[in-house]
Amino acid sequence: QVQLVESGGGLVHSGGSLRLSCAASGSIFKINTMGWYRQAPGKQRELVASITSGGRINYADSVQGRFTISRDNAKNTVYLQMNSLKPEDTAVYYCNADLVGLVTGSASVWGQGTQVTVSS
Q1: In the predicted model, what is the mean pLDDT of residues 91-96?
Q2: Dmax of the chain from CA atoms?
């Protein structure tokens, strides 16, 4: 069994910062791409940022220059540093990992989500 556990969400004023963390645990052989998605009320889930095992990074246009994704492969952990937050960044943020589990084989695993609320 593989699980992702997120932490770091909360309430912040516009212009503030938050750092999200997501740690993968369980019977993992290899983690390929890790990413952060978000879903605001009434909207579809969207990609925020992703990072491959080799360090290739992709950002949504809406967060480019404000958010930074990074990962620690030794800890199977991905981070999202969010600066200059705006009210429109308010959403539930989900971690995702495309991995190869020792038991499950190839799988796309989701975290439980963490709420980020930015007040104006």
Answers
A1: 98
A2: 46
